[in-house]
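Reposting from the mailing list since nobody answered there.

I have sequence plus structure tokens for a pair of proteins and want to know whether others read the tokens the same way I do. The first protein:
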Amino acid sequence: MGGLLLPEIFYELWQELLLHPLLVSVPALVVSSSEMVREMVKNHDIVISNRPRNIAPSVLLYNGNDVAFAPYGEYWRQARKISVVELLSIKRVQEFQFARDEEVAAMVDRIQSACVNGSTINMGETLIVVANNIVSRCVLGKTFMEEDGRSRIGELTRELMVLLGAFSFGDFFPRLKWMDVASGLLGRLKATSRKLDEFLDQAIEEHKAYLVEKKDFVDILL
């Protein structure tokens, strides 16, 4: 394999793994019947409710201690209760209607301006910016827009989602988790985790220093 490029080495290794199924030590259950799915969800929900302890959530989300990846139990039930009652209730959604209205109005103004000037506008990017701004204002109180028009929270969120969906050798072949180091995945996860920590620490300190009348998610959690 000395003359092979790195992607070719990964392909050769993958072929070897396919020929040696005993190396795959992560059990998986494949359900192809709607009746069986109904049986599992209705009568055995607790057994299958947990998510696996994957590498990406463990590094990025404080060992998976968020409401999406935390194991089923008392901690998860309390986190879910806080989310449903304090953050995502109908009353709270209605309280943030002003942020949605303002961001949608700003988007319409940008589109109108582009039409008047005869310039083009990327609707995909525009809708992503609007969504990021709405979420950022509801959660953090402001948009965190840079001078060049980039959104810090938007870039971090996009990077986070890409890494959460990235393939990890360690998730499927625990004995080969060292491959995540060789591929650079673990390094990217740690780098993104540090950037998230710095960003959230800054946001928390700002909220502690300035009390605002309209509370966002960070104020509520603090």
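The second protein, same order (residues first, tokens after):
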Amino acid sequence: MSQEPVDSPTGWVARHIKSYTESGGKRGHLFHGAPTLLITTIGRRSGLPRRTALIYGRDGDRYLVVASNGGADGHPLWLHNLLAQPQVSVQVGAEVFDAVARPAAEDERLRLWETMTGTWPHYAAYQRKTSRQIPIVIIERVATPDPG
């Protein structure tokens, strides 16, 4: 992703992202006690990189994020973007890496949902607010070639 990401969120989310990036991940990694990452997707219409901050969990080496949109009836824009283009860039603390993201399959979703509601219990309330099933997204690091 060669262009500088466009930070589409506003208000406190935009301030969170700014603090995270300007500090190299030293500030902003924890949000109300929950770990957060920055994910950069490619806009499905604009083709521009779009960055947002999300609470994450872990499943082994994989990162997990929830497309809750605060319990709104529609999916968040970042999910639509990664469904169209699953190659993403991720920042966790100071570390930045390329990854591939995909929604969890139904057979793995229940276990991962428990992991994520354990990380951020508000997700359960968000699910009660909407009739859509809130997706869990699995992010897997892309192996970088050995330069040697």
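Reply #1 (J.P.):
I read it the same way you do. Residues 102 and 122 are 22 Å apart (CA to CA).
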